[in-house]
Amino acid sequence: MKKLSTGKFVIGGLTVVLIGHIVFALTYQWLIPLGYGPDEPRHYGYIQHLVLYRSLPVLGDPSHPYYCHMDPRPPNAIGIHPPLYYALLAPIYALVAGQRIDHPQAEQTPFQKLPPSHSRFVQHILRTLSLLIALVTLWLIARTALLFSNHQSPITSRQSLDFWWLLGMVGFVAWLPHFLMLSAVMNNDTLTILLGHLFLFLLAKQTISAGESPPVANRQLPVAVKEAASLGLVFGLLGLSKASALAWLPLLLLGTWQIAKRSQPHQRWQIFALAFGLPTLICGWWYVRFYLLYGR
User: Fold this and answer.
1) Residues 56 and 146 in one domain
2) CA 77 to chain centre
3) Angle ∠(17,86,50) on CA atoms, nearest 5
4) Where in the sequence is the domain holding 212, given as residue range(s)?
């Protein structure tokens, strides 16, 4: 009976935290005027650019350095961000808005103007996707907390310390005002935060399993390959979401080293090749393109 009661407390506590996050985030969404989130018009313009011009934005010539080469809106630094977040939202914009634009200077473009009411509808849909991304992030935080408390699901978290550890980690992030604001507006930070937490979750699994893995002689290559590929894949997506994520490169090296040291010596080059080769394939092209365009 006591075990069942504790499980109910865990589920009930997490439900309150998540409902609170949803309510506050939706409140923020309706209170913050459209276009008034941090750099929101430029995030929105990046999405539209992918749909309307079917190309990545490029900053204009030196006489107008803040203007896109094809579009009259000024993208500023947002126009040179990696494209993953915008590429994920572009099909949704295309489905709902089609080949139409709602920029004040729309008459300077070859596209039809999006009616104001439809424009508001589209922007609220894109804002709500930030909330969905944030909820997945909170789920990953809960999974990470359970890793350290050595449990597999909230229902089996039976110690009061585990309960408060789990609820504290999720609740602290869920009700941070800045995280709530990011959940309410269009921005690429939400996706970067999600991928960052996924990367940390995988890294935590590597750290915990380091003391539980079988001897090197019995370490199976497919298991090591899967672990290295997971780290490399997520890090590649992270690098394609925001350039500042490359600062996590030492963590990728740490995770890869943990996998390699539990593998047979002749397998280690394959582990490192996967962990660093996948990010190079996934996001390396973007940084090569950036250097060729801007020289830095």
Assistant:
1) yes
2) 19
3) 155
4) 189-296
> Which residue, among 143, 38, 124, has the nearest Cα to 81 in the 3D structure?
38
Do 237 and 294 have their domain in common?
A: yes
Domain count of the fold of the chain: 2
Instruction: Scan for tokens 């490192």, then name that residue.
Output: 272
Mean pLDDT in runs of 10 for the chain (296 residues)?
A: 59 90 96 92 88 83 50 65 96 92 70 86 96 96 83 46 79 94 96 97 84 54 84 97 95 92 82 94 95 84
Three-class SS string for the chain?
CHHHHHHHHHHHHHHHHHHHHHHHHHHHHHHCCCCCCCCHHHHHHHHHHHHHHCCCCCECCCCCCCCECCCCCCCHHHHHCCCHHHHHHHHHHHHHHCCEECCCCHHHCCCEECCHHHHHHHHHHHHHHHHHHHHHHHHHHHHHHHHHCCCCCHHHCCCHHHHHHHHHHHHHHHCCHHHHHHCCCCCCHHHHHHHHHHHHHHHHHHHHHCCCCCCHHHCCHHHHHHHHHHHHHHHHHHHCCCHHHHHHHHHHHHHHHHHHHCCCHHHHHHHHHHHHHHHHHHHHHHHHHHHHHHCC
- Of 168, 187, 206, the residue at which a domain comes to its end is 187
**Short-list 19, 9, 92, 80, CA closest to 46:** 80
- Same-domain status, 199 and 174: no
Domain boundary among 152, 172, 187: 187
Residues 115 and 24 in one domain: yes
Same-domain check for residues 144 and 248: no
Q: pTM for the full model?
A: 0.87
Tokens 């969905």 label which residue?
A: 132
131 and 247 co-located in one domain: no
Residues 7 and 139 in one domain: yes
